[in-house]
TonB-dependent receptor (Aquimarina aggregata), 922 residues
Amino acid sequence: MKKYLGLLFLICVQHVWAQQKDVLLTLSVENSDLSTILSHIEEQTDYRFYFIDSWIQEYDSISVDFKDIPITTVLEELLKETVINFHFIEENRVILTRNNSIYDAVPDGFFGRSKDSILEVNSQNKNNKSSVFVDAKQFTKNTTVETIKIGKASNNATSQKFVLSGYIKNVQTGKPISNGNIIVNGNDTGVITDVAGFYQVELPIGVNLFEVDAIAMEKFKKKIILYNDGQYNVSLNEKIENLDEVILRTSARNAVEEVITKTKIDVEESKNIPLALGERDVLKVATTLPGITTTGEASSGYNVRGGKSDQNLILLDDAVVYNPQHFFGIFSALNPFALGDVSIYKNNIPAEYGGRLSSVFDLTTKDASVDKFKGEGSIGPITGNILLEAPIVKGKSAIMIGGRGAYANWVLNSLDEESLKNSEASFYDVIAKYNHQITENTKLEAMAYLSRDDFSITSDSLYIYNNRAFSLRIDHRFNDKNTAKLAVSNSQYKFNIDFDGDTNRDFELGYSIDETALRLKFKYLYNDGLKFNYGVSSKLYTLNPGNITPTGDESIVTPLTLDKERGLESAAFLSAEIDVTSNLTFDTGIRYSVYNALGEATQNVFQDGVPRNEETIRETLSFDKNEVIETYGGPEFRMSGRYLIGDNLSIKASYNNTYQFIHTLSNNTTVSPIDTWKLSDLNIKPQRSQQYALGIYNNLKNGMYELSLEGFYKRSKNTLDFKTGAEILLNEDIEIEVLQGKGKAYGVEFLLKKQKGKLYGWLGYTYSRSFVQLDSPFREERVNNGDFFPSNFDKPHDLSVVMNYKFTKRFSLATNFVYQTGRPVTFPVGTFTFNGSDFAVFSDRNKFRIPDYYRLDIGFNIEGTHKLKKLAHSFWTISIYNVLGRNNPLSVFFVTENGKVKGLKSSVFSVPVPSITYNFKF
């Protein structure tokens, strides 16, 4: 009988307790701390709260407004955005806990577990709820690794895995650490931080051993008890000791494991590669890698896997840079001190990028230091460079300003050559960036860039060209699974020619292209084996094809202004990275692009079945402003797959098809800063391509060596070329001079890198071919009888060897050897006389080649002392460019002397060019 009375008493107590928990509260406070709010509740009720003060001190700005709300609901809302849980016990007492929950029961078999177990992970209680239990005695034995609690336990949760995310940054500089390796529970789970230092990883509930390993940073290790989704930011200290230098820092393991292979260039270590006149140039470093080359020593474009120079998308903080070189490509137009990350995609372009066929050069500037004033600079024989960083709001925002300039005129004026006395060659570029961490989850960046070149070499013409770029980017993390980036940018490229001769034909000629773009990109981490990228983008082109105006009262030049061109390019994209198994991963994506050629414009319509010329124009159509002239577009598929044969060996395959709606106009064999751009319209179709690639990647001797071999095959259509003798400058009917044909390229790329030791560097070799076909039913629109012929940038053999030897921590020697097959050219093969005049007979287009190119450069680096406390760190670079004095021809041209055709060649550096540069950093 007593037994039943006791049970009845317990039921009554629980009923009264349940009724008490339904007590209604009216509470209104604004910007108050949690402790004060709990005191208000105690004053209104019989409840008493028990907690440790330090747990709730951080919650000091809470506003609530409740009216007749049950106390359980009040506490749930009050503690929703905290890591505090609550638990009712009898006699109106409420226990607050941090992170964890109080359980009424333990899982079945809990007391039968092994005594050596520290944690029972992923156990289930009777209500199928996730729970975390820790053996206190065992857990306190190992005190060498600090324990961190993350997340807030929920008795309603059923998941056994949660997402941990955060940022990794450098304590000394405040800058994010990209490509930092995060390893959890040994080697069971690992991720790599992105450019912004952000990471996301899915982990099992309970205790996890969390380690961070980043180059030149001290190792970091913590025990994390994970109760739910949460965030954990890590600040790493720099290592005091110096590490062996690595110029290309893409780790071998990353190259093996990543699905979309990208080439990353270490900006800081590019200083060790000897280049012309001691200038550091990350894009020149890129040309020493397989698959990336140029048409000549003074060429401002890049050819990637047999593609034209206009088929590369060069981005600086999401803003397009149309000409990234100074002075015909001898110097870089991008300040190396301002760059933080350089990534190049050439085998499979991610779906988020579009508008170019061959590659994407994605360059991002580094963040300015938010902690202290810093600077970096260099002084050389031709150029000077300075970059300054200063905090605005310490720990949150900062600004970076950099400038470079050339003072080459003194060199030209000091030469004995009389024709160079009045020559000039100067350039400058400036860059500024503002970065602001608005909140823990929101970051703003604004970048502005301007470059300008002025040159006139033995000429009465002054050439001026410049780039302008601006971007505003906002990165936001919604939660542990969703992030977004909004980027708005504007870019402009233009050139001008000022002609001041001895005749009455003085003029000014100008050209410009301007684009404004918007891109919104989202990332969604569904789980550790499935990630999504999706978004939209759009850009508006405004192109001034050219104008010429007379200068001076006596000039007889007729003014002319071509109609502007406008086009709108838009796209939506979606991609997913899918782990099918632990060894097999796919990255699949689709991008749907739409291009609208817009008025105000006039367009010629030609007769069908006849060649295009002025006589075959059937009619001319007029289009109003913003009226759609023509629409192009379609789906672009991006697919990659990686299979891990072992920890250090993988096979990758990829396929992608792309559209390009903008073209360059040039009848030169090498890229020139006065090349103009042309938008697709009624008569010029967009370029299209398909590329297949298959490669094998291997990591040898624990990352000391990286080995890769990849083959590719690419086909393209509607590539732009010109009729022989075409006139393209200020041509109102340019489509008459244009030929659009097919292209194909194929090749094999080999790369061997040594990344550790006193001797390090890489050997890159490419065998590739690039062909063009210009076929037509009409003879005058056919080149080389309609057969495939080598493109202007077809160079079958391309070999680069970059080696560095470190004698001590302060002294090192660097060498750079380059060999390339001479590019194709068209030679005169005979002459004939007609009506008393001599004419040359030329070979088939690109039938011959100029001599092969090879060059050896040597550089010696002298580091300053490595004392920690000093005004500035400095180093000297002494280099000799073209140490062998090889007279490598840039081009071959022909003149007629005494009735005979004579071939001549031009070169840029035909003798060894020594230089010495002083660099400093504080």
Summary: Residues 355 and 701 are 40 Å apart (CA to CA). The radius of gyration is 33 Å. The chain has three domains: 2-98, 118-236, 252-921.
